[in-house]
């Protein structure tokens, strides 16, 4: 048998530690796959890699890179990890420990960029063609790996501080920054959760004292217009008593203050994180680190003769991508419209049901089932959005993986944002406002009436929508996120080759400890380049729920806080115990996610302002209080200022004006009198049903409040951003002193060189 170059390398003295392991099937000798495998391994050998093969059910190839690659890396990047004086004085074993994440990162880059000379295929192409099955770095089951397993990846440590420095040393800076950010975000969430809890408690205390709730609960003779065209009777307003009381929990005097507080909180959170991040990366000596420079250095280490890819931009290509993004957003909004139609149809079905339970709760049942269906569409569209975003990124032809990741981040978050919030936006700003009036309803397909809000407002519908989606996403999603890797890992351990437990296999493992180590790592769940990306994306969507519509869901920060305490340990357990080791990546910030957080902060101001101005009854109540309430009367007797507001907010409709008034159900009120008029939520006169003066006053007040609220909140955000510097003074002074010392050394060297 002719020995290849990689087979000759097996005669070398093997190192005790390996950078990467390649896994493949035992292909038929001289088959196409076997030839490509050998060609790839030959390329590795030419670069000085040491390769070791172990045969089990699969073929395992351990690769160990030559130390010259890492010396080149240190030289090119001016000693990124530490000073040259330190690195030159360490032994090879200490050098490994010091540079383990850097070694893995460099080796991963070289493995991904080596190409077979004959076919120009790289490792990614070979994996797609089943030449290799996978490639991964190895976990350290002792030392640091054991430390993280016993002091971080445990549920009992849920309230303890995370060992960020240890995480950085084991998983790299990018993973460490994710957990540093997540831990900081969770701590700051507690600050937001406290006023949310106080607001909810205030609503509970005043549950039965709201003047509007009292009037609705006592309105036994106020008959409301039917909610559907068939079988739906006239109904007394008092039937919505409980609904009105729940509305007061959310829509009370403290809601506006809480919304402004959350706008300021979002800004302060970001500014404090920027300070925290500056301190952390400064301690890591990465404050001035340049990602593009590191990628160029690794390209030169891999092959100094190959030209680096250049930046590309095409206006035609960008226009096409923009159009396709717009079309995808239209598709997502179309799905939201389908959900609206579902709610309309289900409402009709429930209101025509023979069950009194469903008839009385038709609207609530439609909202809840619609929210569950919305959650299911989120799960499906998340997969579709990912494929579309990847396709669009490939169209843009990014220069490097980092540039591709940034483009992918923006596109996928945009798609996911519309997927999660299109239906919520409809409930918040359109439900009950585009449905027409009795006698002239807006209908879907000319048949089904659009939904109406309850007489006490639409805020509870928005609350239900958000509560259902957020609760399902934080419970079911986390359960699946943890259980799938756990089941996959246990399945591999249980059903792998039975010979792994026999005596011969145990003796082989004793002679070659690498075999057991590599098999253990292989049986762990696979990770990919988007594993950490998915964790960030999940938190961005949660942050959006926590800030943008928080005025309708004041307990959102509390739910997010509880979820994140669990999320931190869940992610830690997955990374240390259930998944293969991630390829470490250097970073000095959280990248594009910071820009997304700032965009969400601005959307939070706009969203909460619109919820208060449009969704809640805060503005109509204020207009009534200062224009028509008992408090402005000369003979004011101390009545509540909102007394009479319910009657003020309901319009009158003549039953004879219904097109099918002869076919209407029984038209008698609880007193036995024939119903000649019914009430509905709007501001219209009872003659020609045109909008009243009060409608225009309220509309002007809503728009004025929205503009005022957004300007005040944005000004407060800007002041808070200015007041809290991004970088602590101590860090600025430290870098200033370092620059001065560096320049002073250069000046002294110049003086020494010019002496005669």
UniProtKB/TrEMBL annotation:
One of its GO terms (cellular component) is plasma membrane. Its main location: membrane. It holds the Pfam family Anoct_dimer. Signal peptide: none annotated. It is found in: Cell membrane; Membrane. The keyword ATP-binding does not apply. Belongs to the anoctamin family. This is Anoctamin. It comes from Podarcis lilfordi.
